[in-house]
Amino acid sequence: MKATNEDLVHAIVSLNNIKKSFNDIVAVNDVSVQIREGEFFSLLGPSGCGKTTLLRIIAGFESPETGDILINDKLVNSTPPNIRPTNMVFQNYAIFPHLNVQENVGYGLQNTKLTSKSIKNKVDEILDMVGLGGFNFRSSSALSGGQKQRVALARALILKPRVLLLDEPLSALDKNLREQMQFELRQLQKSIGITFILVTHDQTEALTMSDRIGVMFDGIVDQVATPEDIYTKPATKRVASFIGNMNFFRSNILSSTAESVRVESDLLGVLDIDKVNIFGGSKAKVSIGIRPEKFKFKKPNGGKKVKSLAGKLIQKTFLGENLLFSLDVGKKANKVYISLTPSGEGAYPKVGENVTVYYSLNDLLAYFEV
Amino acid sequence: MNFSDQDKKGWRLLGLPFIFSVLLLAVPLATMFALSFWTQDYLVLKKTFTLANYKEAWFEPVYQKLFNRSLIISMTVTFLTISFAFPVAYFISFYGGRRKALWLFFITIPFWTSYLLRMFLWKVILGYNGVLNSFFKWLGIITEPLTFLLYNSNAVIIALTHGWAPFAILPIFVSLEKIDRSLLEASKDLGDSSFQQFFRIILPLSIPGLIGATLIIFIPTIGDYITPKLVGGPDGLMIANMIQVQFSKANNAPLSAALSVSSLLIVGLISIIFVFLNKKHLRTF
Q1: What is the DSSP pairing of strand A163-167 with strand A195-200?
Q2: Quick one: which of A245, A252, A270, A271 has its CA closest to A335?
Q3: What is the structure's pLDDT at A1?
Q4: Which three-class secondary structure state does DSSP give residue B139?
Q5: pLDDT per residue over B49-89, tens digit each?
Q6: Nearest CB to B185; choose among A61, A98, A141
């Protein structure tokens, strides 16, 4: 990843060429990421992509084979976790079973020179903040999943870390509670201003909560960008297919000019694609990607930029917030997905009909085949 | 009474173990209990109720002395065994890696031979011309063999501590294994040094195993009979040896029974108090 001007904002955590492998399996492969002070940063990726390993390297539970890690401009490669200015919310919360809520939350403060009275006050304060006021003497075995999560959060935040690390903290909660906690975590982060680094495999979680997201695959960070950019301008084909849905069309390059590249695809025909929408190196083959919601059944205004695609509607799936259509376009058994926001009955075609869908050249993204 | 099919099935299932328990546990215990209130004249039992046996068992200095010695030896053995077992269990659990099972297997190897043989071997090791004395002589540390090694309470303590080691290692190992490793990471993350972590997390969470180990060792060792007989000499005899002597040689089964019941009461009482004192650590995590 090249340094840009934006990266010059003070980096609280600086990962430089970090590499880590376990028994010949490379978990983190030459990762360099700068995490800015005060931001909500998410590491997003499928299971086994190395995001948790990267988080544990920041926390100090794993040490990188090569590369440097700086926290607040200090090299911490060999600093043990108990000395680092980071605290972690563990995936299973790791609530101490032999201690009650008060003792769990005040655990880290017991190692400081604070009096038990001021520890008690701080615990009360932080429990109020996470919405567990008065739970002090509740046994840790009598807590629900959501409450345990709040205790784990309070226990980490009470030490006022420079960076709070969250390892899939919401994955064990049910959907409604998870959405509520997403909102609360975001609010909390903005109000206290501590840098949060969240590890998640849930793209919705990452997209809704983060200031910036780092998308990881196979130990490599493919893209670090804002949620909007990740969605609208995914930098690699695997980011494009991991975040949201994407229809891909294999194409060959015919010619290229300063602004655009002319490509030919079996299904889409000959198209000129803007260079800003093309990612990767220069090979002979590209994959053209288009989001399902970019297809329209009605021809939009847009002149020459608007193209069309004909096919037979073979399936309609109601997903709540949207409707997903599958279009059989005949050749090579390729299915094209089209997504619509439901707007009353009869506004869209029926299954079995032959339809024409429209899209704009501006909505196409293209990735060179590796 | 009407039994449903399920009841009948239950009774059939429980029947055999129930008969087994009654015959092998309840009947002998009841017999011993009854016997302790009778008297014996040579080979004739007199079945009139008397508390004389208990009076003798509790107030004669020789029995008091034996009870005290048994308690002290057994408590010392328990303490020493657990002190040695904890580091071993700790090592296997935290540093055993993939070889945990192999380490546990190694620990059990000495226990493939009989208990009697293992206790007897201590005679060979601690004896006048034994392994230890010969070794010290060869080293030139001593010229005359040490005599305090064998035939006293120390020898009993050494032999029992060795003999019961795996019974302490295994329950402690299990309780250490049950500690969620993420708790250890959490404590480190919250600022604990390794030392603080041990006393704040590992030790408190291994208490169920420690309690188990304590009871498993304390209860049987207080009544151990072979070890004091083999390596104890006259100063290392324990209450079980006296029970045996009263029963067989002195032909006084009722007194022997009274001593047994008393011993049972003492062990039971101490164990109950011990468990009660540690009640809060035994709640299920």
Answers
A1: parallel
A2: A245
A3: 45
A4: helix
A5: 889 899 999 999 999 999 999 999 999 999 999 999 999 99
A6: A61
Q: At the fourth CATH level, which superfamily is domain B51-282?
A: MetI-like (1.10.3720.10)
Are the Cβ atoms of B205 and A82 closer than 8 angstroms?
A: no
Confidence of residue B172 (pLDDT cuts 50, 70, 90): very high
Q: Do A279 and A236 contact (CB within 8 A), yes or no? A: yes
How many residue pairs from chains A and B have C-beta atoms closer than 8 A? 62
Distance from C-alpha of A94 to C-alpha of B67, rounded to nearest angstrom: 47
* pLDDT tens digit sequence for A164-212: 999 999 888 888 888 898 999 999 999 999 999 999 999 999 999 999 9
Contact B191 A108 (CB under 8 A): yes
Under a CB-based contact definition with an 8 Å cutoff, are residues A215 and A222 in contact? yes
Boundaries of every domain in chain B: 51-282
Evaluate whether A106 touches A123 at the Cβ level (below 8 Å).
yes
Following CA atoms A13, A17, A18, A20 in sequence, which dihedral angle do they give, to the nearest 10 degrees? 170
Task: Work out whether the CA dihedral A225, A231, A236, A239 comes out positive or negative.
Answer: positive
Contact residues, chain B to chain A, C-beta under 8 Å: 180, 182-183, 185-193, 196, 200-201, 204-205, 281, 283-285
Chain A interface, best mutation among B189, B201, B205, by max A CB count within 10 A? B189
Q: What is the pLDDT of residue A3?
A: 47
Nearest CB neighbour to B180, from listed A88, A94, A155: A94
Whether the Cβ atoms of residue A135 and residue A110 lie closer than 8 Å to each other: no
- CB within 8 Å: A82 and B190: yes
Chain B partners within 8 Å of A155 (Cβ): 186, 190
Do A82 and B186 lie within an 8 Å CB cutoff? no
Which helix (H) or strand (E) segment holds residue A156: the answer is: helix A145-157
pLDDT along chain A (370 residues), means of 10: 56 94 91 94 94 95 94 93 94 93 95 91 93 92 91 94 94 87 92 94 93 95 95 91 88 82 84 82 79 86 82 85 84 76 71 87 82
Domains of chain A: 5-236 (3.40.50.300), 245-368 (2.40.50.140)
pLDDT on residue B221:
94
C-alpha B95, offset from chain centre: 28
